[in-house]
User: Fold this.
Amino acid sequence: MAKQRSQEKPKKKRRIPLLLKLGFVLLFILAAAFAVFFFYMRRQTNPSRIANEYVSVFMSKDVSALFDIMGFERDTFTTPETLSASLEERQKYSTITSYGMVEYAPDDPDNMRQYSIQYWDNSRGNPYTQTLVLKNTEPKLYYLFDNWQIDNSEFLARNCSLTVPAGAEVTVDDIALTSDMADSDNLDTITYRLGNLFAGTHAIVVHMEGFDEFNTNIPLTGGDYSNQALYTVTTSMLRITSETENTLKKEVEELLPALYSHALAGDSFDELSQEFTIEESARNGLGQAYQTLITNNIDSPTHLTEVEFDSFSSTLASAYAEDHCYAVKVTTETRYTAGSSVVKEGQTTPQSRSTAGNSLFTTTFHYRDGVWSIYSSTAFDACIYYMRY
Assistant:
């Protein structure tokens, strides 16, 4: 019996399947990796570490890295180069050689941290002080970790726009504005949406054919400009070129003698208008005024017989918007000698009279599609003075 028991085979131990073993190993590795990742991310998302990394990059003068760490987006006017120009203007960035950073007392809300940073140049004079603000934003990183972001609002003028006269060519900081930036066009003006600009001084140049170039510099601070135009350039701020000014003066000083020469000869308005560029919408009104001037002062019993213009003196006012185009008024003073034929009451024989006089006329020009044209002139509405008795 005992011998029979000794001959029984020992039972085999149950082995853990290889795949199960591999599963336990993989699970262990994943748990270890997650623990490493968790502690790494906790360190990476610590606001103090982010503040120290920011100031380290700031002091390295690597503006491209600074641009990225501050969360700026590359756009037309926001690039590492324009950030560098902003820092240089506002903080003399290139001269900064040292700094000191202190975290404010931890009485901020849970979603905010603030640090006071002072920067100095080699002279240690006139330090630049910055309050670095970090905000804990949503969503969380990987659904687990705080997402601390640097508040860059002090650096950006957001949602900027610029309004200029229609037809003008515009540059901001030497960048030409294009039609795809145009937000509205109401025939008289165009509003351009510029997006974000860095705080600092920005150069605006407006150019329009026939007008002097308009230049201005606009200082901007950080903030939201959604509800106000960054700047508005009006037509009255543009001055026509001296060449155009002389052309318009000459036009008026040729119009006045021609007006009276044709009127005295009894010519039609069409003959007069062939010598000048007349605004089409004003043609009928000027023609009627011309005919009235002839009826009242040339065809009447006592009438003007001749006029010799001795001198002219013209000045121009600022341009302005009118009838969806640009307009300018030319005021002209003229001295002349006028001859008239006077028929006195009860007499049939006319008597000649001569007198020297001076008159002031205002002529309005319209500028449309690159052409200046006569829109109105008081020379058609009021005859020069001559002897009527």
Notes: The first helix runs from residue 2 to 6.
